[in-house]
Specification:
73 residues; 0% strand; globular
């Protein structure tokens, strides 16, 4: 089964933000990557029926380091 397009977008944006947050040195870049991470959480929340994206954003913030594919079992 193929994932919906919105989920792929949210995952890609989250990965870009996570990698950027790991390696950025400039506070302005950090702010931009945090904004991208927030957009990814907004996309996920909107498409899963959550009124508040905060729980998703908190999960995203726990993912640190270089984003690597997760293997589903």
């Amino acid at each position: 089964m193929q994932n919906p397009q919105w989920l792929e977008w949210a995952r890609r944006l989250q990965a870009i933000a996570q990698i950027g947050l790991e390696y950025c040195k400039d506070p302005f870049d950090r702010q931009r990557y945090e904004e991208i991470q927030g957009l990814a959480a907004d996309i996920a929340a909107k498409n899963t029926g959550l009124a508040d994206p905060s729980p998703i954003l908190e999960l995203y913030k726990k993912e640190v380091g270089y984003a690597t594919p997760k293997i589903d079992i």
